[in-house]
UniProtKB/TrEMBL annotation:
InterPro entries: Flag_bb_rod_N (IPR001444), Flagellar_basal_body_rod_CS (IPR019776), FlgB (IPR006300)
Keywords: Bacterial flagellum, Cell projection, Cilium, Flagellum
Protein's recorded name: Flagellar basal body rod protein FlgB
PROSITE patterns: FLAGELLA_BB_ROD (PS00588)
Function, as annotated: Structural component of flagellum, the bacterial motility apparatus. Part of the rod structure of flagellar basal body.
PANTHER family xrefs: FLAGELLAR BASAL BODY ROD PROTEIN FLGB (PTHR30435:SF12), FLAGELLAR PROTEIN (PTHR30435)
Family under the similarity heading: Belongs to the flagella basal body rod proteins family.
Major subcellular location class: other
Record organism: Marinobacter halodurans
Subunit structure: The basal body constitutes a major portion of the flagellar organelle and consists of a number of rings mounted on a central rod.
Localization, UniProt: Bacterial flagellum basal body
Positions of the Flagellar basal body rod protein N-terminal domain: 11-39
Length: 133
């Protein structure tokens, strides 16, 4: 009997991928904390994970004619990327609050580590099952 990694690993593999994407976005915000006019962005983790699982909760679009735009190609990962409403925007139009971004980045890093540890324990369990321990 073949092992289905998708069933065995559960949601944690997809969660890791979404956490990596979010880390890139938050790092970009931190890198541009002093850039005039830069707008802080973030990703809705729950919506991104739901989309990664194919459970967006919305009706699916379909191409009815060959000339129509492919809805899957039109919907990218960046569709979940949203601008953040600042608590106190700066005078130069920058909406990045460096302390808030650092806190979000660290929280995301801890959540990434937790998902990674869950995956590690899943692999350890699979290894024991294969060895018959």
């Amino acid at each position: 009997m073949a092992i289905s990694f998708e069933n065995a690993l559960g949601i944690h593999e997809k969660a890791l991928n979404v956490r990596v994407q979010r880390a890139e976005i938050l790092a970009n915000n931190l890198a541009n904390a002093d850039t005039p006019g830069f707008k802080a962005r973030d990703i809705d983790f729950k919506a991104a994970l739901g989309e990664a699982q194919g459970q967006s909760g919305e009706l699916a679009m379909a191409r009815t004619e060959p000339g129509h735009i492919d809805p899957d190609a039109a919907m990218s990962d960046r569709a979940l990327l949203m601008y953040r409403n600042p608590y106190q925007p700066s005078l130069d139009g920058n909406t990045v609050d460096a302390q808030q971004e650092q806190a979000r980045f660290m929280r995301n890093a801890m959540d990434y580590q937790a998902s990674f540890q869950f995956l590690n324990s899943k692999f350890a369990g699979l290894t024991k099952a294969i060895k018959g321990e």
